[in-house]
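okkk here we go again. third time trying to get the fe (ii) ion bound version out, last two times i messed up the smiles copy paste (missing a bracket lol). double checked this time i swear
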Amino acid sequence: MAMNTMARAEAAEHAMSAELDRIAVKSVIYTSGERDPRDLMPYPPDQRRFYLMGADPRLAPMPERPTLFDFFRLRFGPSQHMLQSARLATKNGVDEKIVLACLLHDIAITGFIRSDHGYWAAQLLEPYVDPEVSWAIRYHQALRFYPDPSVGYEYPQLYVKLFGPDFLPEPYIEQAYREAREHKWYMSARLITVNDLYSFDPNVKVELEEFTDVVGRHFRQPAQGLGFDSSPSAHIWRTIMWPTRYL
Ligand SMILES: [Fe+2]
Ligand SMILES: [Fe+2]
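finally!!
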């Protein structure tokens, strides 16, 4: 039965009031730079409404016990770059753990924070993957800036385009590169960079299911769900799930 105009208007109003029922806030990290973080927050407390302390109604609802793939589907941005890297790594015959590392190497960018994305992703994943996997993800960030002719890895032309021809990495990145070169897992991080390509066919769409088994074997999915397992990074998963909670 078609809704009459009045009913439609009421439904729309209900939807809007449900959405605006509580005030959703943005953390300093979302706005710093666009505004001076030392200034008072621009939103005055609204005495007639409460602040949001749970799920943001503007975002897709998450299941009670979210899995890694739930985060990919419901919270992360487009992930084809990582999926295609993982497919390429598989094609290149690398160890399955490295395929997983390729699949996850940029999740900080797609789901959380760009700046220092290798470090954030490593921290997020550490409780759930082999230490070699999180180590490799942490160090791929630095290794991306340094060529390794032994495996045919060159400084990415994309970086010249993105950062200009004169860009030099920060000293801490240079230092991380030196540490990595001396480390027994150097080649694991290096293999992420080797398979970290942007020149894929845009018409090819890789599905997550292609990696169900690799994830099943090498990612320790907590029974309580990511975010509710009291791991040292559970809070980061919760923040990705509920990014606009007041506290
Ligand atoms: Fe990366
Ligand atoms: Fe990447």
